[in-house]
Design a protein that fits this description.
Blueprint lengths: L7 E4 L10 E4 L15 E4 L8 E3 L5 E4 L4 H10 L5 H9 L5 H4 L4 H7 L5 H8 L3 E5 L5 E5 H4 E3 L2 E2 L6 E7 L1 H4 L2 E7 L9 E7 L6 E6 L6 E5 L5 H11 L13 H24 L4
Parallel strand pairs: 1-3, 2-3
Antiparallel strand pairs: 4-5, 5-10, 6-7, 6-10, 8-9, 11-12, 12-13, 13-14
Helix pairs in contact: 1-2, 2-5, 8-9
């Protein structure tokens, strides 16, 4: 779609002062998908030269905001850690064409803040942290589960940039379980639940997204039983937190959230009982 109110596209490397009507341009798959009458200038991040995926000395993984879904998918297929299948599962949750995969970015998916954003699901489930950079150059770190505060709402300040998301080494060594539900065979996620089991101390985390307006990550020091998990979800997710749109009513999303969370819990609990390392 032509954005006929945009008068200029600037290179982000120039670090020019932020103006009203500015927007960061990553892959542009969202920006050019619908009218953006409030925009006057796009600040293009494509020439920043950020390495898409970088391993830290501590075993962590830093994913640049400009990393495309295609790059993440290729990396996941070559990745040796236990969580490798989860990368592809979340990439496939896009249900998008190869053209979108080659342009859409991890950072763009997070910054849209949409409940069905699978990169939000992936990075929240793996206890990721967002590195944010202000217009003055100062940096701050925010957990992914705190970065998205509601449907389309984020903690970004005016002109603030999402630089990257870092996944800790401990999370990359976890066993994972993935469940997704949609009203249609090739529809947007109505509920997406990811579970992680730490082989070191048997702690478990269950992350509910898509069904809710923001991701909810529930952590347990030991695998919970069915009742404990249900009570934890009921305490964390309020009635108004279940999302409502054409892709699913709140009642259905709530039902699927509980159902998929229990399936994830059961799968990972069985691994724990079997002593899988």
């Amino acid at each position: 779609m032509d954005l006929n109110t945009v008068a200029d596209v600037r290179d982000a490397r120039l670090r020019e002062p932020w103006q009203a009507g500015d927007a960061w341009l990553g892959g542009g798959t969202y920006l050019f998908s619908e009218p953006q009458p409030h925009l006057r200038r796009l600040v293009d991040l494509s020439r920043m030269g950020w390495e898409p995926l970088t391993h830290g000395e501590d075993g962590s993984l830093e994913i640049a905001a400009t990393c495309t879904i295609a790059q993440l998918s290729r990396f996941g297929r070559q990745f040796k850690d236990r969580v490798a299948p989860l990368f592809e599962q979340c990439c496939r949750a896009f249900l998008a064409s190869f053209k979108i995969w080659n342009m859409a970015t991890v950072g763009g998916n997070l910054c849209n803040g949409l409940p069905a954003g699978p990169m939000i699901s992936l990075t929240a489930a793996l206890d990721g942290s967002c590195l944010l950079q202000s217009q003055a150059g100062s940096l701050r770190s925010v957990k992914v589960v705190d970065f998205v505060t509601g449907a389309g709402r984020k903690v970004l300040d005016e002109g603030e940039l999402l630089r990257s998301v870092t996944l800790p080494a401990r999370a990359l060594a976890c066993h994972t379980a993935f469940r997704q539900a949609s009203l249609y065979g090739l529809g947007r996620s109505g509920a997406l639940v990811i579970g992680t089991l730490d082989p070191v101390d048997s702690s478990m985390a269950v992350t509910i997204s898509a069904a809710t307006v923001r991701p909810f990550r529930l952590w347990f020091p030991l695998p919970p039983d069915r009742g404990e998990l249900r009570r934890a979800i009921e305490a964390a997710v309020g009635d108004d937190d279940w999302y409502d749109d054409i892709h699913g009513l709140p009642e259905w999303r709530r039902h699927m959230g509980f159902r998929l969370a229990e399936e994830v819990r059961h799968e990972l609990t069985q691994l724990s009982r079997d002593g899988v390392r």
